[in-house]
Each structure stands twice: as C-alpha cells, then as structure tokens.
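Narrative summary of target 7.
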Amino acid sequence: MATHKHVMIVHPKFGEVLNETFMDEVQFKIFLNMVHSSIELNQNLSTFNGKDFLVHIPSSILKESLVIGKTKEVSIAEVVLAKSKLEG
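Modeled conformation, tokenized:
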C-alpha cells in the first residue's frame, strides 16, 4: 500500500486556494512546514519547484484560510492508474 498525502487550503471568501497531493512523505512535511512558517512569520507563501509547481498565496489570505493536511492509504493499482492518466 502507498500513502497519498494531501494538503488543501480553503478561504471562506475565495473558496479553494490550493489543493495538492504528495506521494513523498518528505516533500509533504516540508510543504506543511512552509505553510506553518508563513502563517507564524506573517509572510507570503511562495514556492516554485523549477518545473511545474508554482504557488504564491499572500499572507493576508493565508491567515484567514483553513489549512487541511491528511493522509490516505491507496493500493499500488490506484497509483499506477493515476500515473497512466497523467502520462496520457
């Protein structure tokens, strides 16, 4: 079994601001730590992986948002199916 790690940020006025799934536990923990640090330090949440993931959420919106992080067990078949949809 594999584990999906999921982060969702929902603002009461603007709705879903971010909805991201991670397969790597380290990346999931780093991202949650970035979100937490941005809230605590009253800084914008900005990150770019150099390829295909760019996020910029102003601190005013982030502070008013609900941040949900959760994990979900998935089978290997579900992982293969998801990857085939991405490649197709």
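The CA atoms of residues 46 and 56 lie 4 Å apart.
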